[in-house]
């Protein structure tokens, strides 16, 4: 018996030690023989061993094309013939979905990942089931069953997915167990899954529940309990699809901040570092304030160019007191090595570079980098602007790349507007803000209506002779029928603007305009306006300062815009007055894409006998708009007749949320009024309008807005195109 076993082993060993002289493939119908042979790793001339046979079987199975693979051998000549037997998976002739109502068949085919005409393995069919269940889950449907079945037809394999769409789990109650410091309601407010109320469906979302667990721990960590843990979660089935969720919490000990100290820093003195810390001794421990404090330190050093700063926070626990030490490793400041502008196809590179406030060799200050980005983006020529950085040398110097995505900067609009003052007005406007790719602005505008017409042509060169001197000019022909008089103006203006050295975002400007003014008063006009009727020339110079640090001039969320101007008329001509205007816009970014605007504006006209038609009239929309009132409807009385005021005051508070990048709803309140004398100004006598609206940035058209506001006489609609709000 032992001799027979030895003979068999010697025979097998001699067979597998032979060289492969031939390979035969059987059972394949759809898959090419060459593919099978190549995938197996076996080849004529290669030595046949048990290990390479096992590897060949594994490799063929890994193709996912065969339900069974076997390899046999037989002697042939002085070597071995290999016979590969395969059993192919069938091709899919049809995929059918039965019972699906919430998701259409077309979407089902995309989701399951199996295509008709392809070979489908058992694993692929199972993966299709998993993908379908995931799609339902992503849409909030958890109680769904999917059962795949297959049947063979003349054309191949038909796959049927039987789907049972059950109702979703709904949360009847959330019970918090072990909480002593906070109520169930307070903890539940930190969660996205909430229990049923009259206004909440309370459909359970498993993905959100994973985030809810982290939110609960974060809730505790921001209120003095950084070691709070969730010990257990229990789902209790109630009637139907209702569940009760029990969450057991171990709150741990409540902690407080103790001493705060710094070590290692030299560039910024320790006494100045304390102002960047968001918490104080004896306050309740708060991880959010800790993170904000570290971020403030990084930003403070970043403004000095220390990009490689390391701030390591050490916490020493003494009973319930946590002493904080910030260990600061400053490193060396980074400098700008090279600045590259990329993907600008129309805009000349110098147009972008001249807006930068950072240059090669400069320390890479965070504030200057942000300022440069804002200035380039606020040119208005780009739909997107991203910044790339790369370490350029062993010393840590940085290469900067401004990645530009240009937008169609030209704007053309044709429309019809309406206001109580001007009635229906048709308008045509062409604006080319990046003429020749050099940043020049050319615009032509025409408005025509029953009470209003205006034709204007303007041109602006932003960098005259490649210096930061912006020069603009325009000519216009305006005619407007106001409440008690008709105003006609023909003329032109030229202005110059230049940045103020060492004052970021600040420009000084001077303009001169000359125009022919014709006033035709009717019987309802005040006597002063009737006396000023007729034709005269106005020659005026305006001096001013502007500071604009908004992050986006079309849809700002942070920064400010401030201006002051003084117009002096009477440098020749027959119109003499001085007009002073102060204006400020302050924008604040809030969490969840919210932003607020606070605006204030004050105007003064001097002297007392200044032309009546130059007085301030408020209402409606525009520079002196108060929404909720008709355009140009808020003024004073002179001899019982309507007139403008020599003093004007305007306040606006506005909040918006950006649902999308180019569309956002707003709520607002406008307040303002006019007076003829300084001692008459009364903040309790302001006209008020409150309402809501929407803003949209439309390509080729600019900003489009609609507001609905409530004033003294009810609700008033307002429609605006292409102006700043």
Automatic annotation (TrEMBL):
Organism superkingdom: Bacteria
Any one GO CC term of the record: cell outer membrane
Keyword Repeat (UniProt): yes
Pfam families, sorted: Omp85, POTRA
Protein name: Outer membrane protein assembly factor BamA
Keywords annotated in UniProt: Cell outer membrane, Membrane, Repeat, Signal, Transmembrane, Transmembrane beta strand
Organism: candidate division WOR-3 bacterium JGI_Cruoil_03_44_89
Gene Ontology biological process terms from the UniProt entry: membrane assembly
Location(s), subcellular: Membrane
InterPro entries the record matches: Bac_surfAg_D15, BamA/TamA_POTRA, D15-like, OM_assembly_BamA, POTRA
């Amino acid at each position: 018996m032992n001799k027979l076993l030895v003979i068999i082993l010697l025979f097998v060993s001699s067979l597998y030690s032979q060289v492969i002289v031939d390979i035969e493939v059987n059972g394949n119908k759809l898959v090419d023989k060459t593919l099978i042979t190549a995938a197996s790793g076996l080849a004529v001339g290669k030595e046949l061993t048990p290990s390479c046979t096992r590897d060949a079987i594994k490799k063929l199975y890994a193709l996912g094309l065969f339900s069974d693979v076997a390899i046999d051998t037989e002697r042939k000549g002085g070597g071995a013939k290999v016979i590969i037997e395969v059993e192919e998976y069938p091709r899919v002739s049809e995929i059918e979905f039965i019972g699906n109502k919430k998701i259409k068949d077309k979407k089902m085919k995309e989701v399951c990942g199996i295509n008709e005409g392809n070979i489908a393995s058992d694993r692929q069919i199972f993966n299709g089931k998993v993908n379908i269940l995931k799609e339902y889950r992503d849409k909030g449907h958890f109680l769904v069953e999917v059962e795949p079945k297959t049947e063979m037809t003349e054309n191949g394999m038909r796959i049927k997915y039987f789907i049972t769409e059950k109702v979703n789990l709904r949360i009847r109650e959330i019970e918090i167990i072990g909480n002593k410091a906070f109520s169930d309601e307070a903890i539940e407010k930190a969660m996205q899954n909430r229990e049923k109320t009259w206004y909440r469906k309370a459909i359970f979302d498993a993905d959100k529940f994973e985030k809810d667990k982290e939110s609960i721990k974060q809730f505790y960590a921001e209120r003095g309990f950084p070691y709070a843990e969730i010990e257990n979660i229990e789902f209790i089935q109630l009637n139907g699809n209702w569940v009760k969720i029990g969450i057991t919490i171990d709150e741990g000990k409540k902690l407080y901040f103790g001493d705060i100290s710094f070590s290692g820093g030299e560039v910024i003195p320790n006494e100045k570092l304390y102002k960047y810390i968001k918490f104080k001794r004896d306050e309740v421990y708060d991880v959010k304030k800790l993170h904000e404090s570290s971020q403030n330190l990084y930003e403070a050093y970043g403004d000095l160019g220390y990009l490689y700063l390391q701030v390591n926070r050490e916490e020493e626990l003494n009973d319930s007191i946590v002493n904080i030490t910030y260990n600061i490793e400053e490193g060396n400041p980074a400098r700008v090595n090279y600045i590259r502008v990329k993907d600008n196809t129309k805009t000349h590179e110098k147009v972008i570079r001249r807006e930068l406030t950072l240059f090669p060799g400069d320390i890479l200050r965070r504030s200057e980098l942000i300022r440069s980005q804002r200035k380039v983006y606020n040119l208005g020529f780009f739909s997107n602007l991203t910044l790339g950085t790369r370490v350029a040398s062993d010393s840590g110097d940085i290469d900067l790349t401004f990645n530009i995505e240009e937008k169609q900067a030209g704007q053309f609009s044709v429309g019809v507007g309406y206001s109580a003052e001007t009635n229906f007005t048709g308008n045509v406007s062409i604006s080319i803000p990046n003429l020749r790719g050099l940043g020049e602005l050319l615009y032509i505008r025409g408005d025509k209506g029953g009470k209003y017409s205006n034709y204007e042509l303007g041109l602006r060169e932003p960098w005259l002779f490649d210096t930061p001197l912006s020069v603009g000019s325009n000519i216009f022909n305006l005619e407007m029928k106001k409440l008690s008089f008709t105003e006609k103006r023909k003329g032109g203006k030229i202005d110059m603007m230049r940045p103020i050295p060492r004052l970021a975002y600040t420009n000084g400007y001077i303009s001169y305009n000359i125009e022919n003014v014709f006033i035709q008063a009717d019987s309802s006009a005040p006597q002063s306006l009737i006396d000023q009727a007729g034709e005269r020339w106005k020659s005026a110079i305006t001096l001013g300062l502007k500071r604009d640090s908004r992050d986006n001039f079309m849809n700002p969320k942070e920064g400010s815009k401030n201006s002051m101007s003084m117009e002096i008329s009477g440098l020749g001509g027959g119109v003499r007055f001085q007009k002073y205007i102060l204006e400020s816009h302050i924008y604040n970014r809030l969490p969840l894409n919210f932003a607020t605007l606070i605006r204030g504006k004050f105007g003064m006209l001097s002297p007392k006998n200044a032309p009546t038609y130059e007085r301030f009239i408020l209402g409606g929309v525009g520079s002196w708009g108060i929404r909720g009132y008709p355009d140009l409807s808020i003024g004073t009385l002179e001899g019982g007749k309507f007139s403008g005021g020599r003093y004007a005051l305007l306040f606006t508070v506005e909040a918006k949320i950006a649902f999308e990048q180019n569309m956002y709803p707003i709520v607002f309140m406008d307040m303002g009024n006019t007076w003829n004398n300084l001692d008459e100004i009364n903040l309790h006598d302001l006209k008020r309008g409150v309402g809501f609206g929407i803003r949209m940035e439309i390509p080729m058209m600019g900003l489009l807005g609609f507001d609905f506001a409530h004033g003294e006489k009810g609700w008033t609609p307002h429609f605006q195109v292409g102006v700043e709000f």
